[in-house]
Amino acid sequence: MRNLRKCYAKVEALRSVSFDVRAGTTTALLGGNGAGKTTTLSMLLGVLLPTSGSIHVLGCDMLRDRYRVLPRMNFTSPYVDLPKRLTVRENLRVFADLYGVAKPRARIDELAMQFDLGGLVKRPYGQLSAGQRTRVSLAKALLNQPDVLLLDEPTASLDPDVGDRMRTYLEDYQRASGCTLLLASHNMHEVERMCDDVIMLRAGVVVDHGSPRQLIDRYGRDTMEEVFLDIARGVPDESGEASPERMLT
Amino acid sequence: MTAAIGADRQRGVRASVRRIRALIMRHAFLLVKSWPRLVSMAYYPTVTMVLWAFVTLYLAPTNRLLADAPGLFIGAVLLWDVLFRGQLGVSLTFIEEMYSRNLGNLFVSPLRLYELIIGQLTMSVMRTLIGVGGACFFAWLLFRYSIFSMGLPLIAFFACLLAFGWAIGLAVSAMILRYGLGAEELAWAAIFLVAPVSGVYYPIAVLPPALQSISHALPPAHVFEGMRAVLLQKTFRYDLLENALLLDAIYVAIGCTLFALAVQSARRRGALLQMGE
Question: What ipTM describes this predicted complex?
């Protein structure tokens, strides 16, 4: 992303945001509510047009040629849902065909097993609990074995046990596939565990970045939770700089 | 793990057909498991058909037109429902995606806009055939009236009305995408704006000159004039068919353009991921 700006009427949601995400890594996009995380993810997916700036994913210009790269991407978001009256299998089948999955039935069976959906595939999606829906959404996001996976609060409604299993699965998937993962999360434990890099947003600006370890050291804290609070509240890091706006390149 | 998606599976006509089929499958899954939906599709066309059939039975003994062409009103109401169901088929298919908050999933998938439109139009055909087909069956069962007695011109009438329904349906979908589900009422009401000037039950000639000008700019007016020519004069008016087809092409192009502009506007406003009830 280069010099990305997004304005809604008089509100500037993103102000000249630039960053690179290294291929094959997991990067967290962190920030408080309204910091611009979902706006950034939406623009990466091509469903939101920036006011100015450029976005390249897997070498493709997302503003001009997004259909070349969309088959290699996928996402989950709490802002979208799946048709509630369709069963889990029907939903997954529809999206398998939309993404051109070669052997949809086998892939759905594989994901149903991995995400413990075996007993749910014949149930209407609308009858599932929030946690079960999250698992189905994750399964949908992995149907096409994406090279780039964008996850907005991927484990927010999962209990600790299932959340842990999902993180393990995502880590395994990432290691095996070399997939690039970008996740927006408020779960700092998840970020510390899964992420190689962290990009911190505040009020539409990248205010800091680095690996979780680097950020923890830089702010002289013990956990990412504490770093998050410092950055969100504008507390200076150990060098005395109050959340400097560091542009990622 | 290797990517399951080959580049060739995402390009070309076959890939496009597969994505359209997926969209149709999504709505077909919904229809086949919900008999209330199926019944409601045929309910309104059947009830209005029955109403006009009784009006015909009442007036036919004293009315020469109806005595000569007893299917005048029943045929008209069935064809009007082709237009109405055709429009609803497009609009409701789109509204369904908004209700289920599924638009975001569709727009980040490889589904192209034209494929989404073709999917909606195909669903419109299916919904129209179910809805009007049911009414046609009851017209034959209860009143021994077969719409197929119009012969081959019926196909032309059906196609012209369906296409105009698509155009209105796409324009309504654009409005809903722009103004949200608060504009949903348009899906049900929009088509009735053109009903008085479409000459469904009466010739365009009875309208005031100003309204006649509007009628001539609308494909349904030409179709219903053509229907009356078939039923009353036993002739097929090719000139009316040409007019209707030409106007349909213009209106469908306008409908597609409005829908594409609404999608682009939604992408600017960030509405695609956040639209729902």
Answer: 0.89
